[in-house]
Amino acid sequence: MSRYILQRLLGMLAVMFVVVTIVFIIVRIAPGDPAAVMLGPDATAQDVASLRARLGLDQPLIVQYGIFFGQLLRGDLGESIFLNRPVLTALAERAEPTFFLTLFSILIAGLIAIPVGILSAYWRGSLFDQVATTLAMLAASIPSFWLGLLLIQFFAVRLGLFPVSGYGGPGAGLFTRLSHLVLPALSLGVVSSALILRFTRASMLDVLNDDYVRTARSKGMGEVRVVMKHAFKNALIPVLTVIGLTAALLVSGAVVTETVFGLPGIGNLVVSAVLRRDYPVIQGALLIVAALYVLINFLIDMLYLLVDPRVRY
Amino acid sequence: MRIREALLSGLAIVASGPVLAQSSGGVINVATIGEPPTLDPMVSTADLVGIVTQHFFETLFTFDKDWKVTPLLAASLPEVTDGGKVYTIKLRDGIKFHDGSDMTSEDVVASLKRWMDQASRGKQVASNVEKLEAVDPSTVRITLKTPYAPLLALLSFNNSAAVIMPSEKMDVPMKDPVGTGPYKLKERKPDQYIQLVRNEAYKPLDGAGNGYGGARKPILDEIRFVPVPDPNTRVEGAISGQFDYVDSIPVESYDRIKNIQTSKPVILKPFGWPVFVMNTKQGVMANTDTRMAVRLSLSMEDMLAAAFGNPEFYSLDGAMYPKGYVWNTDAGVEGRYNVADPDKAKALLKKASYSGAPLRILTSRQYEFHYKMAQVAAEYLKQAGFTVDLQVVDWATLTQRRGDPALWDIYITHSPFLPEPALIGQLSESSPGWWSSPARKKAVDAFNTESDAAKRPALWAEVQKVIYDETPSIKIGDFNALSAQSPKLEGVVPAPWPYFWNVSVKK
């Protein structure tokens, strides 16, 4: 088993290397220039050129790549062009809102999707199932920004329960900061619940027809125990996978929601970095997100080992 | 939630009782369109940088409500001698930087040197400066090679600004923003907030506020600039009352804002002008007749209607400056603005032997009205016989591409009405568009070197006439800007770069 884990770890490193290189190339072949953005609309071509030189952007790509890679090996993600601080610090500052947003969204999604998915499968074809599947399809097709705006309209503007935007001002306590996350987490949670619901339902349907479920029933076991202990436990693997991947997606893909709600998270940082062409931040953020992705995948695989003893290599 | 917050704030009051008792100005949250790219006002020409930094950095001069230059850190307007070549500037006494040090002429000289070295507008001045010296601790002298009338306006502007900072804080890039302004920077959390607190040691000028000039009284305890990039969220933030001032909201939200109690509209009328800048150096637009044909084919009315919808927010106006400005003139406009005559345009295209080469229009959806104008323009241009290639890119790409004359023929931008016409970028030979002709040189030089304020409007009329004759750019019209403020705020003056000194919160 430890060999398997070692193999997986080496694979992760290789993936990271490829990601780093692709990100580096893509951000640099995209048009646009951080110097021009920073200097504003009335800057002259000479100003832009001299700032480019100061930032080292006039160097050949291969030289820039070498410098970047060297820094990376020393654990340094470089300095943001715009934020006046190292990329790692900028990322660390954004980690908290993104972490809690992801956590809350997944909790909300799981709380909606898993019970409804189980019941939908159990009462397959019933009115409950039909309504739930239709709602899930609807939720999956709602753009999260639109749902976000609706939530803002109702809960923030009409009822005044939650803030519209931001993550609290100077000195805001954790409680205030978290209150800023309720609406975005709700909008992301509802949208993500659709996928998890469908996986739960499909996976439950598979196992509910299996022999061991029938056996359990024939032994006179109560329905709740049959469903939860025998069926759900075995249906859990694909559900865990999809929850894990949704979490990874949320870390990187909450971009639109973070922008709508003005949340200073990692998604928001990536968007503004792309708009400003803040190369070190784009590279650093994508690198971290890729690492998270790879790590979550790895953790899901490790969870398989725990949940299903058959997955032992 | 409420109970816990109440408890927490109760504790905070007990803990900081004496401090709260002293300060009574309140804290305001200002929603801005995003995060400023830098806090160094010399380096950037972005409006957002000027809006935020003008609260903690100050210039020697500034503009009053009639856009006349008025002293700020200088004790008075400069003494101009030697036929407009020598400017002797007396500094105000007792001005302290936020780090507690005194402002002296050495700081001013060092700052102006940095400005001429780093700022686009400073470089504009630098080539014309012979000597910059500290005459005594409170006097600075600038000696020019030739008279240059826009100097004072450039020293006053908050965009690419000649701000004064301590001589030991000249780092590039700026490390520690220390100014003299009514507010000082306390904390910046990028994409979250920029927190400014009152400068207790600030000494405002006597009297009342007068535009950007006059007394700047720091009444509020704190100003927090909060980036809210999504325009719809800014509107909702104004309506919910989360923000006390919300900069730049879509004009479509006007009806919602004006009928509620939590927020009221702030209309800046007129704010600025959208402009189509032509590449006069290379390609299709290098020919004056072709450029003229573009203008004759366009309906400014339709473009403005598409871009701004509600007629309360735009007006047809071919003059470079609207009525109310000393620079307003009809010179050259007659029969050349809002013509929308495809036949006339076709005739000109024939004269110019236009080959049908694609007319590359560079625009961005960063400013939705640019894109809407481009769509309308494209249809009119097609009617006149142009082959149109509309290139919609993001703003960062546009600002880069426009620097290369091989890549575009027209790009779309906009500008507020700048207090001094010499600040208009397109008049400079080096700005993208590269307009260069004997007529331009003659008219612009005459305008720039005339230091008699009374004679300058007539010389500006000449410049406007040449702009219409040679069409290096096309002004589409005037437009107004919409922002929102809480009814509790008192003293907000609609301004292109909104400011919050002299502003208080109604109790």
From TrEMBL, chain A:
It comes from Microvirga lotononidis. It is found in: Cell membrane. One of its GO terms (biological process) is transmembrane transport. Gene3D superfamilies: MetI-like. The chain crosses the membrane at residues 9-30, 99-123, 135-157, 177-197, 235-261, 281-307. Belongs to the binding-protein-dependent transport system permease family. This is ABC-type dipeptide/oligopeptide/nickel transport system, permease component. CDD domains: TM_PBP2.
Automatic annotation (TrEMBL), chain B:
The keyword Signal applies. Residues 68-427 form the Solute-binding protein family domain. Residues 1-21 form the signal peptide. This is ABC-type dipeptide transport system, periplasmic component. GO terms for molecular function: peptide transmembrane transporter activity. GO terms for cellular component: ATP-binding cassette (ABC) transporter complex; outer membrane-bounded periplasmic space. Coiled coil: none annotated. It comes from Microvirga lotononidis. Belongs to the bacterial solute-binding protein 5 family.
